[in-house]
Write a structure and sequence with these properties.
The structure holds three protein chains of three kinds. Chain B is mainly α. Chain B is 77% helix and 0% strand. In chain B, helix 3 packs antiparallel against helix 4 and helix 5 (129-160) runs antiparallel to helix 6. The termini of chain B are far apart. By secondary structure, chain C is α+β, with helices and mostly antiparallel strands. In chain C, the strands form two sheets. A five-stranded mixed β-sheet of chain C has the order 3-2-1-5-8. Chain C has a five-stranded mixed β-sheet with strand order 4-10-9-6-7. The chains are: A mainly alpha, B mainly alpha, C alpha+beta.
Amino acid sequence: MSSTATPEASGHSHDDGHGHDGHAHGHAEQNFFLKYFWSTDHKIIGFQYLFTGMFMALIGGFAVYAFRMQIAFPGMSVPGYGRVTATDYNALVTTHGSVMIFWVAMPVLIAALGNYLIPLMIGADDMVFPRLNRLSYQLFLLSIVVLIASFFVQGGAFGGAWTSYPPLSAKPEYNLTPLGAPMWLVAVALEFAAFLLGGINFVTTLMNSRAPGMKMFDVPIVIWMIVIASILFMASVGPLVAGAIMLLFDQTVGTGFFDPKKGGDPVLWQHLFWFFGHPEVYVVLLPAMGIVAEVITTFSRKKLFAYKTVIYTAVGTGALSFFVWAHHQFIAGIDPRMANIFSVTTLLISIPVAEMVFVYIATLFGGSIRLTTPMLWALAFIGEFLLGGVTGIFLGSSGADIYFHDTYFVIAHFHYTFFPIAFIAVFAAVTYWFPKMFGKYMNEAWGKVHFWGTIIPFNFIFIPLFLLGARGDHRRIYDYTHFPDLMKPGMQDLRVLATLSLVVLLAFQVVFLVNYFYSAFKGPKAEANPWKANTLEWQAPSPPPHGNFPEGLPTVYRGPYEYSHPDRQDDHWPQNSPS
Amino acid sequence: MSSFPRPIATTRSATGISTGKLAVWWLIASEIVIFGGVLGSYVMHRIGHPEWASQAEHTNTWAGALNTFILLTSSLMAVLAHQAAEHKDGKKAAKFLYLTILGGLMFLTVKSIEWTNEIHHGFTLTSHTFWSFYYTAAGIHGVHVIVGLIIMAIIASDAKKGIDLQRVEAVGLYWHFVDIVWIFLFPLLYIAK
Amino acid sequence: MISKYVDSVATFSGDIDHLIWVITAIVGFWFLLAEAVFFYLIIRYAARDGVRAQYVAGEDPKEKRWVAVPHYLTLAFDVWIIFSAISVWQEVKQTMPQADETVRVIAQQWAWTFIHPGADGQLDTADDIRLVDELHVEKGKTIHFELQSRDVLHSFSVPVFRLKQDVIPGRTIRGWFKTTQAGAYDIQCTEICGIGHAIMPARIIIESPEDHAAWLLSQTPATAALTTPTTQTGGMP
């Protein structure tokens, strides 16, 4: 705990006359509402995003429970939902997809962790635009209000899949959701606006507000990743924002941007969507990779293998991700020659991603590995993501995609990437930073129960889906009994196995929620740096007060991963320790 | 506003560029791709549909040219406002910002006369996909103009009191960007016939 | 591998299966190797009392080899996969062998209409045979198909051919297949097309030359008119 005083800490005069201590205490008298709902403190905003994301995960989880039950037991009255009609089924599938990506993965991985961690890990007291930050969360909350309201309007929630392809999404006579479709689109657009504001804030904060002495190559990987992801998001979402405006006009005033009868082109939307949609995969993957880097270095007491390589591969992945989008459209009516080009770029992107995974595996070499709950999650991320990565090769290969496109093979593939990203890595993050966030420990034994209760059923959900996809099960079908070739012996059993595994997985999340909230209030007290980690957030008290570093903002002397350095007795070497 | 306690983070500048300016650059970067999306889609459609020229010939090139001139002039005023702000002359900076705002208002006035006229002739948002693009692209641009005017009004009233003069440059950057977008819109929507 | 579960009845379906097999072998090998190394390291370097972790920066080229060599191998195997994938793609999507017969496939919410050319072998003549959700082809013939949609996107998918192609309103998309075996199989719509997406199954009936001739005979224009579905009213685009 050797926080070093900085010139800034002695120079309170910068601060418009508000001394550093002044505002640390100034907020103490604020009432509950101002403190937790109107705060500009990056940590509170981080919590707002985290808890909102958790709440949305419950909605996304409930949706998948309802529609998976319908697939396994067609026509049954699903406990807690009732009978799932074809309309319900499409709405549930759409809700599950869009909620999990836009309202769970994005807010938790980018916004919650970015807000909570960036200032702490770069040794600042807040973001550079605290009020913009608050506005960003408020817009995000508004987007959720619009989305949830769309469940209850006439015609019900939008059911045209999270990709919202026109003409289905463009005309009420096709989608039968005259209000649900535009409301879904408005909700997504608001969410983008929120993340654009947040992204600008993240990037400028990292660029300008690093602690004295902290060079770019002293920045922890997780911060690099969140910022690279924010830049990717900002650079890729524009065409979709434009597309959303055009689609909204098609829906509401009857323009024909995507209507072939009026000279428009429905495939244009697919280009605009996937130009964003594919980089989006890396927008959420990179922060997850960053979390894993922090956790595996801490719990193997190792320096990260080839730190700079990780950053270069992340930048390379990000740049390449702008040139692969049409692999979602091989059979969508694009020029078949284009498929060859995009097949090449898609397979090439496997190289930097694979390299990142190799680097992480190499980091374990020669380590002193402790299998704590966060470490289990981080290792599980690597192990499971590998399968998600290699199955992508089948889909990126144009010839094989002719068969696999829009089958359950695709679903299994991207859940083997997205589930590790949005849940496994997030559980690693939540359990790793829990002592910092709350100043308490989570229960380790229950943490491991939750880990195995999630990882085992996860594989039993999606391995059957790979098999079903290979046997021809196509996506977004609420009842396979209409297809004789898909009701061959054993196929329904696989569907039932996947659904029952899902129910088990969902049930085990109760263990997590109880452990999390119980520990937050009643857990054993944690010290400031329980894992003996190097990065700056662990040098602040747990939980950090408003202003983060009460002993003055830190100065940085070295990179974040100096574990087990041969010149030192101690096996860690905090970034802010002068010697 | 002034009661808001500014964190130390907001006063740092590791890059040497002021945080506000940096943020405006990133904002512009993300706006470029938004306009890129609209204009890219439009250009692809024009290439695919040469017959849209028969619609495009009904646009009023003179009104477009006049607006180009007005916006360029207002950008010049924004530059002068920046210069005044560099010399810590808040009053003068405010004066030039008000002139910039005047330019923006004239732009909007010309635009509304032009659109009213076109709508009276039956060229509406839904009459043809050319006009859908025309109104959508210019409309998104127009929203940026309006937002710029509001922000400039706030900054000008602060600058008059000598507060936050560094913001004059930041808003100027944004205004040049809005101007440049128009420089792309004008030939694509008006001249290409 | 796939043909164990799903019949392979087109000339190119075996090639797609083979491609899938090649990819499975390559990525399967790398996946298992990476997992093996990964688990080995976790067990080998589990924390033990008194044993300190090593300090390895991974910046030295000698150390970087451990990542660089797999990196180049990944590239080499990628190139192999790309060539295999593209050659299959070109066979299925970029070549059009001479047609023996052309059928028109019209998708709409939520049915397929198949227009067979009839006895004269020409589309858009009086003896065209229109059937809903049923496509008849003769075994061993090269069939061209013209895909059209009346409303939203659909996708024409025949798993036993390993074939799939989206159907786009306002366009006619052409493709081909040549069957190798008689039988009746599913046709699916694989692009979400509204609430009836799941109830858009159709069947393809592949017949021997004799059966096909008999079927053709039974579908005289008069009887064809009787079986003509109500969905025909929209007129062909």
